[in-house]
Amino acid sequence: MLHLRMENSRHGRDRSAPPHATGRRPSCDVPGTTPQAPTVPPPIPPAPQSLPVPGGHALRAVLGDVARYCALMGALVWITLRGTAASGYDWQWHRLWRHLFATAEDGGVHAGPLLDGLGVTLQVVAASLALAVLAGLLAALLRQSGSRVGRGLAVVYVETVRNTPLLIQLFVVYFVLAPVLGLGRFAAGVLALSLFEGAYIAEILRAGILSVPTGQWEAARSLGMDVPGTYMEVVLPQATRTALPPLTGQLVSLVKDSSLVSTIALHDLAMQAQAVAADTFLVFEVWFLVAGMYLALTLSLSALAQLLERRLRYEF
Question: How far is CA 267 from the centre of its chain?
Fold first, then answer.
């Protein structure tokens, strides 16, 4: 009798307890029922990948931006001309053509003083840009190195150059360093511009290097890559994509800052414009034309940089 009561009590507990409390799986042997298959969540679809933008579409976008900017500048020029016309100023644009294109004795046409100055400006900008990028990259790598001496030298260079005027640096290089090193006007101007712009480029590149995720460094180390190889193959390509927009702005600043080399009698565009304005007394015409030449140069560089930025954006 006692054994029968214990059996009934055990069966009652089994019927009242939920399946998960006893550790048993729910029985599917009930007549008239079929076992249920476990519910499997649907697979997550992969994220759509951005398709590369065709080159023609990117070019049209850049040309559209340039056209809108030119339209805005044309409206500003028109307002300026209307204002000067109301003041009674006699515009003589036709007198500037002989300063753009000169006619030789044999009847040939060659570049006038303004175009010659533009050529010198392009040479100064190209040489200064190459040296500035090299100086900036070296300073950025020294800032990231493990050498205290290298970090200290990079900090002194960047902070000293960024916090002093370019004109004073130009005079120091031309009147102090150039005689010692045997540099001419062109080399002295390029050296001063390179050191000045290189300090800003160093911080831009350092910011781009710091933006690379730590996992990229760790992945390169796990593959057995050394530090130079990691920089060249992994870090710098990604840092360049991030640093390209501010580098473009610094390049535009370099083009405008190159006009200061006229203070050391280097016959660039600004120096030639001063000579033509003093010779013809066409101050407004000459400087408006020179401003337009600088604007065309910087807009061309910005358009090229924007095309490169779009390409790098969809390549990686």
Answer: 30
Residue 59 structure tokens: 């070019």
> CA triplet 253, 256, 260: central angle to 5 degrees?
120
Q: Which range, of 37-41, 88-92, 198-202, averages the lowest pLDDT?
A: 37-41
Cβ atoms 188, 173 nearer than 8 A: yes
Tokens coding 29: 């042997």
| pLDDT mean over 76-92 | 76
pTM over 0.85: no
Task: Read off the tokens for 291.
Answer: 């401003």
Mean pLDDT of 202-229: 87
pLDDT band at 255 (very low <50, low <70, confident <90, very high): very high
